Amino acid sequence: MAAPEKKRALDLKRKNDDSGDRGEDVTSEDSSNDEKNYESFRNEVIQVDFEGRNPIDSDFHGIKQLLSQLFLKAHLNLSELTNIIINQNYVGSVIKQSERDDGNESDDEEDYDANQVFGITTVINLTDKQKLECVQQLRTLLLELCIEHGSDEVVGFVRSLLSNDNKPLGLLLNERFVNIPAQIAVPMLKSLGTEIKRATEKKMAFDFSYFVLICKLYKTDLKSKKKNTKKNKKPTEEIVWSNPEEEIIDQEAEVSFEFSVEKESDSGLSGLWKESDDELTPLRRVLIIPASKFDEIVHKIEQEVTA
Predict the structure, then answer these.
(1) Is the pLDDT of residue 111 over 70?
(2) Which of 20, 31, 141, 286 has the most CB within a 10 Å radius?
(3) 141-167: per-residue pLDDT in tens?
(4) What digits encode the pLDDT tens for the residues 182-191?
(5) Where is this region: Disordered (predicted)?
(6) Max intra-chain CA distance, the chain
(7) Residue 1 falls inside a structural domain
(8) pTM of the prediction?
């Protein structure tokens, strides 16, 4: 039986400065007008209330879409992975827009979709569920990427972790639309921590030793940056985190490695860019963190994003 639906009002302001997914080509004739209006556009604030809810069957396509933007073209059975998330809905939450109940209609209500999933925060047991196809694929992918992109020390650590069933490994999923503020991560991660503890007390398979988190980030292309840098000034690499709170998690990681996904379709960051802007290379950084640090990390995130 599914757990009763939970709701947590998150009441966040969503800014539009990252949400310029325009869908059409911008011609040179239009671009000057676009640039003139860009500053006023990016400062526009739309009040949107979000809430965390248990994943349900109707969330299938929304969750799968979020997984697709994380894993891109990786050989994974995302349908099976999505079903796992929905079936274990006593742990983890999806982000949805709160339904208006004040009796006042607005133009925005025409765009309201009760099934729209804006984010997912949950954990999958990669040790206990390793007989499932998608979990086997995730374990294989993790090891293959580690061998290709990690140091010998990291490879040894990952091999040892995957071969030791006495140290359960959880895949931490923290995925959402790029224009939703980092503040939303605090109640989502806090709730996840509480649910993990509750499930563990009931002797369910959520007593993890480590979490693995795959982060989306972007780095400036140094070749492109060099063109836009003044003479005799050395260009510096800049990093943009899709989920800013994951930079804090990165600081607590026991091991990590990263790899480029430039050749794969990735629409994570979109918007109105000028020709002088530096090109960004999309990457994934894999973090492995001790589960014992989870509460401490969430506390640090809360301090940082609410400061």
Answers:
(1) no
(2) 286
(3) 999 999 999 999 999 999 999 999 999
(4) 999 999 999 9
(5) 1-38
(6) 66
(7) no
(8) 0.80
Q: What angle do CA 161, 241, 13 make, to 5 degrees?
A: 120
Beta strands in the chain (DSSP E): 8-9, 12-15, 45-48, 50-53, 93-97, 119-125, 169-176, 210-220, 239-241, 255-260, 280-290
Dist CA 22 CA 84 (whole Å)? 33
Pairwise CA distance, residues 93 & 15, whole Å: 23
φ and ψ at 129, to 5 degrees? Answer: -100, 20
User: Into how many domains does the chain fold?
Assistant: 1
β partners of residue 286: 214, 257
**Is-contact 53 7, C-beta < 8 A?**
yes
**119: exposed, middle or buried (Cβ count in 10 Å: 0-12, 13-18, 19+):** buried
- pLDDT tens-digit map of 31-88: 455 555 545 544 555 567 889 999 999 999 999 999 999 999 999 999 999 999 999 9
27 located within any domain = no
63 Cβ partners below 8 Å, 6+ apart?
55, 82, 85, 86, 94, 117, 120
Structural domain includes residue 257: yes
